[in-house]
Queue: 3 jobs
Job 1
Amino acid sequence: MSDVEDPDVTIVVASRNRRDELVASLARHRAPVVYVDNASTDGSVEAVRAAHPDVGIVELPRNVGAYARTLGVRRATTPYVAFADDDSWWAPGALAAAAQALRDHPRLAVVNGRILVGPDERLDPVCEEMAASPLPSPPGTPGAALLGFVACAVMVRVEAFTAAGGFDPVVRFPGEEERLALDLASAGWAMSYLDDVAVHHHPSPRRHAPEERRRAITRSSVLTGFLRLPWPRAAARASRAVTAGGPERAGALAALRELPTALRHRRVVPGRVLARLDLLEAGATTPPAAAHPGPVTDDGTPAAAHGAPVTAGGGTVAAGPAADEGGHG
């Protein structure tokens, strides 16, 4: 771990079976780290213990996806937590800048930074969408207002994150952001994109095939619809996915098999949040379930071009560019 930038920040990293990338990226973090291991079988835990003895480790007996991040937040003792994946890290000065924004704006729950992809630091396309968000910013909040975010590039206010339930074991991963963002907005919290806060992401070559990601992202989107949207909107989201065929249909069917569990946690968001969704979707050129291009896939094209649903509001259903299952992007 490098020098601590801000004493109020902890970094939470969830990972599964990416030992080499994990060990390398942990050395770049400028804050205390809680690493939550999603039942890795490649010796990740042992390697981290040997290379980074100062890192707190939570070993899980099974892969719980993004819910691992919630378990990591519970171990943190700071008011703010920055998330990173095993192939991402915050640029120098970014942690301090994001923490200061949260201090200065007490109703701000999430700061999403600018994502720079690969050694050539290409701007992730989702950042352009977030920067151009049409949502009105609540008085006194910085940056562009959001109704979604990319998990590997955000700092959260622990108080707000915890009250909203964090990332849950129903949606799991990828696509965990949307339900949490809707719940934060329902509780009156603000979320902002700050272009002067940078996060590096060097996508790992160890990831699932694009078709499998599309299936998993669609599953999460459909489940989130039934968890938080009015019945007509939830049903329309599921219907679009089934009609699309291929991985989208498979993802929708997977979601429907888990519908009884989701319905036990169903709570429709208030009208003012639906109105913000309407505002976003009114300007969308793609179907409502894919209202923003979101992250790039492995072939370099926007996820929405493959039919992968992304959250309206500039935030993506995937947990970062070219997301993979297992708690990392």
Job 2
Amino acid sequence: MEFDYGPGHPLRNERLGLTYDLISACELLSLPSIRYVEPEPATDDELLVFLKPDYLKVLKVADAGDAPPGAFQYGLGTPDNPILPGIFRWSSLDVSGVKLWDLGSSRLGIRNPELSDKAYA
């Protein structure tokens, strides 16, 4: 899945790619404790642990790329949080990546920007 906040946003795919390249160049992905996983989109029940139901509804509608009523009250539609097609799916994959991260250990989950739906944990 391709998702891009645009050239002016600090979380540009180019920057994510450079970060991934640096991690790869340092051979961190070849450490024995690293494993490759494919995150699944988080379920509504998993998202509702962190989100209010009305915000989840607005985020789902915004996935089409259009600002639904009430989007701005949640900070959506600003330069920092633009509304773009796929924003809900992308967000649910990000939450899924965090879900894969074992908070009780020193493991860290990262997404490979070249394989947008793939992650290492």
Job 3
Amino acid sequence: MSETEPTAASSGALNPLAPDHLPYFIPGPDGSDPMMHTAIYFLIFFAFVGGVLYLHMHSLPERMSHGHSRTQFQIVAILALLALFTHENIFWIIALLLAATTLPDFLTPVTSGARSLASLAGRLYEGDEPREDDIGHVPGTPVSHGTSQGRPAGDTAPGTTGAGAAEPGHDTRGEKG
């Protein structure tokens, strides 16, 4: 046989002993492997879909607690993040149970009492002041942070004389009263 004559393997002809039809998962003589390409596309697609479903399911407690109070939503979100990064399922279960329940409102009676005591004392209830760092704050609802730091210096509550307030430029340190 000379080197210029094509052989059966190089011409793409099938071996005479091979069946007439070969299944698609057997690679062709040119080295193409359609089954491997199909498997790769299948795995990439389902890995992406599986990741999307996993993250969608993982955000379920946060989406459930979205209508609850801000504090409860933040606790659920932190537990869901802990569960995501630590792979501890108990955090996700706790977040799901916390999102499924409505926590009792203990803050409203306390706020009402504080507002009543402030009006009896002739002072302004500081929880009604809008805070510049709390964008969604509605006056009359409890503030979730801080104390009376939002009031400008020298501002006194209604009904008070302001006699105890320091005058601008007057240093009261070291004076005994």
